[in-house]
Amino acid sequence: MTFFKHTPFDTDEFINDFDALSSVLLHFLVIEKKITLSRHSDFHLKVQTRVMQFEQAYQKAGNSVSKQFNHYVQTWKNCLNEENPERASSYIRYYHDPQHYQPKGCFDYLRPSMPKKIACGSTMLIGALGVIGGVIACATLPPLGIPLIAASCVAIVSAIAILAFSRNLKEDEFKEKERALFKDGISIVQEIAKTEPDNSDTFYNSESDRLKSITLA
C-alpha cells in the first residue's frame, strides 16, 4: 500500500477506497494540524502501524473494516479540531463504544498464546473424556458417575472462560493503546498551537512537497 499520498478528501461522507482514506488521514495530520513527519516521526510511525493493521483486516473482511476505518479517521478529525479537552475525550469514548466498535486489524494481537491454547485444549479434551466416563459410570455406579460428570463440565467451562477472558483483556489493552495514541495527537496539536506562529502558506508548500516525495510499501 502507498500510505503517503497527497490527496485530501472530506471524510464527512463514507469513503470506500482504503488508500484514499489513508491519504485523508495523513493530509489532515501533516498539512492541517502541522504534525510533521520530521519532528513527530514516532507519532507517525504509530499511526502508520495502526493503519497497516486496518489494511490487513480490510484484505480479509472488506467493507466492515472500511466502515470502522472511516470512523477512525473521523475520530482523529473530531479530536484534533476540538479545543475543549473533555469534548475531545468524548469523541474517543464514542469511537470505543461497544455498540459499534470491534478491534479491527488486531487479530494476531488478540489471539491467545499457543501454550495457553494447548493447555486449555487439553483441559477440554480431558473434560470431555470425563463426561463420557461419567455417563458410563452412571449406568453401574451413579454416586461416582454424577460427580465425575459435574467436575468434567466445570473443567470444560473453565477452559472456555479462560480463553474468552484472555481475549477480552487483550482487547482492553489494544483499546488503551489506541486511546493513548489519540491523546498523544491531541497533546502535540496543543503544543504546536502554543509555540508556533501562523505561517500556513509557507508550511503548506514545504510539507506538500515533502509528502509528494514520500511513499511507503
Structure, described:
- With 217 residues, this protein is an all-alpha fold.
- It has 2 domains: 18-110 and 177-212, no CATH class; 114-160, no CATH class.
- Helices cover 76% and strands 0% of the residues.
- The protein contains 8 helices and no strands.
- α1 (18-32) packs antiparallel against α8 (200-212) and α3 packs antiparallel against α4 (85-95).
- The longest helix is centred in the C-terminal third of the chain and has 54 residues, at 142-195.
- The chain is elongated.
- Residues 1-11, 200-209 and 211-217 have low confidence and may be disordered.
Task: Give the secondary structure arrangement, pairings included.
Layout: H1 18-32, H2 41-61, H3 63-81, H4 85-95, H5 107-110, H6 114-140, H7 142-195, H8 200-212
Quick synopsis:
The protein is mostly helical and 217 residues long.
Enumerate the spans where pLDDT stays under 50 for 5 or more consecutive residues.
Answer: 1-11, 200-209, 211-217
**N-to-C SSE string, H for helix and E for strand:** HHHHHHHH
What is the tally of beta strands? 0
Residues in helices, as a percent range = over 70%
How many structural domains are formed by the residues?
A: 2
Main beta-sheet annotation: none
Mean pLDDT figure: 75
